[in-house]
Design goal:
The structure holds 2 protein chains of 2 kinds. Chain A contains 12 helices and 2 strands; from the N terminus they run H-H-H-E-E-H-H-H-H-H-H-H-H-H. By secondary structure, chain A is an all-alpha fold. Chain A has 2 domains: about 20-155; about 185-280, no CATH class. In chain A, strands 1-2 form a two-stranded antiparallel ribbon. Chain B is an all-alpha fold. Chain B has 5 helices and no strands. The chains are: A mainly alpha, B mainly alpha.
Chain lengths: ~290, ~150
């Protein structure tokens, strides 16, 4: 029985070692690409898809998502599969340069190799753009990339997601989506003074979320989090943006719902909801200004 | 001369009165706006509760709620029209009035989808209602994104 559950988990995660046909890989990559929410940060408002230029304001400065189209000059056209996987897993660029964790490799490190390669295969089917990447606007000392080696040592634990065989396949699928691909914690988990994720308070919200706006506590605490929501409520919210009170989100989450969660299967939304609502509730009131 | 003092005094009272009204009005306007939004929210909540399976589907409730949404949607542009004030605690962003054209387009989209929702509710087709509710939610989100600053 345990074996069977384990097998299910493996299949659910797409870890099956069977060789994949190229078009299957691209179709799977497209789905995973959506789940990963790549489009948002790598596309300027009204700009060409993945050509970069979207500003992300953080306490460390303003970062601009780079061009990740398959253009060989300005995009990632020359990147090998291994280099792409290394960027996601280790936060290292093609030339060995340290990448800023505004690129959420602390989450993407958990993506399986096969899934990462599928995402790249899909990206390479999209039209290339020769738009140069905009340099980040980051003041001293954050502009010294070598310092990121120290940052990683203190704040980053690399490693692919490992399913918990004591849990259901649904829970594991949800965990993989939340922790690895959808990188929910990058916005919803508080950060320490160095900008590192505070894992002990996972998903409990922060006043300084994306673009310095608050991201709510989404742990199941009934007062300060979403403890009054059930799996149906959360899955429906991820599909429609409509919360149990009939209010409709208009924050950055609206974009996440449009680009990512509304595009997932309803099983995947339910898995995300099951996982999130199973987490330890954290009492943390996120104030708005 | 005495008359002009009286006139001046009366004028002062009149101006004071106008100022008082001008100060009082925005708070009421804000409350009226919030009432419209609450009306939308509670009725959207009533329908989505059934769509999620949290409450048994009742065509009459769906119809009543959809009609209420369509009626409230019609009130939205007026509730936000210029000089209704952005005083007091409000989540309405000032860009509503600096970009009125943009806001009016969003409000018109809400009106269109809300009317469709009322039509779909009449037919009693739950799947169609679910689809239309998502279309309606899209117009809510698009407007909130641009013109609302959530504060609580």
């Amino acid at each position: 029985m345990t074996r069977f559950a384990f097998l299910l988990i493996f299949v659910a995660l797409g870890l099956a070692a069977a060789p994949v046909r190229a078009d299957d890989q691209v179709a799977r990559g497209e789905y995973l690409f959506r789940a990963g929410g790549c489009l948002g940060c790598h596309t300027a408002p009204g700009g060409a898809a993945l050509a970069g230029g979207r500003a992300l304001v953080t306490p460390m400065g303003t970062f601009y998502g780079p061009n990740i189209t398959s253009d060989p000059e300005h995009g990632i056209g020359r990147w090998t599969d291994e280099e792409f996987v290394r960027a996601l897993h280790r936060g290292v660029g093609r030339g060995g340069e340290q990448l800023y964790p505004v690129f959420p490799y602390p989450s993407f490190t958990k993506i399986t190799d096969a899934d990462a390669k599928a995402i790249k295969a899909y990206i390479f089917t999209l039209p290339p753009s020769s738009q140069p990447s905009k340099p980040h606007d980051v003041p001293f000392p954050f502009n010294i990339r070598l310092l990121l080696i120290g940052w990683k040592w203190l704040n980053f634990s690399p490693g692919v997601f490992k399913p918990d065989e004591a849990k259901t396949p649904e829970w594991n699928r949800g965990a993989y989506l939340v922790e690895a691909l959808a990188h929910c914690g990058e916005c919803h988990t508080p950060r320490n003074l160095m900008g590192g994720i505070e894992r002990s308070r996972a998903l409990s919200g922060t006043a300084k979320g994306p673009d310095m706006k608050p991201a709510p506590n989404i742990t199941p605490d009934p007062e300060t989090g979403i403890g009054k929501w059930n799996q149906n409520d959360l899955a429906y919210f991820l599909e429609s943006g409509i919360d149990p009170d009939g209010d409709v989100t208009g924050s950055v989450m609206d974009e996440v719902i449009q680009n990512t969660t509304s595009k997932l299967t309803s099983d995947d939304r339910r898995a995300i909801a099951a996982y999130v609502l199973s987490l330890p509730p954290v009492v943390h009131k996120v104030g708005r200004k | 001369m005495k008359v002009s003092y009286v006139t001046a005094a009366l004028a002062a009272i009149a101006v004071g009165g106008v100022v008082w009204v001008a100060q009082a009005a925005p708070a009421d306007d804000v409350k009226a706006r919030q009432a419209v939004m609450k009306e939308l929210g509670s009725n959207v909540g009533a329908i989505t509760k059934m769509l999620k399976g949290e409450a048994p589907y009742d065509a009459a409730v769906a119809q009543k709620s959809a009609d209420a949404i369509a009626a409230a949607a019609k009130k939205a542009p007026d509730a936000f029209k210029p000089n209704t004030g952005d005083a007091g605690p409000t989540e309405a962003k000032a860009t509503i009035w600096s970009n009125w054209q943009g806001f009016a387009e969003k409000a018109a989209a809400l009106d269109t989808e809300a009317s469709k929702l009322a039509d779909v509710a009449k037919k009693g087709d739950q799947a169609a209602l679910a689809e239309q509710m998502k279309a309606l939610g899209g117009t809510c989100g698009a407007c909130h994104r641009e013109f609302r600053e959530k504060k609580s």
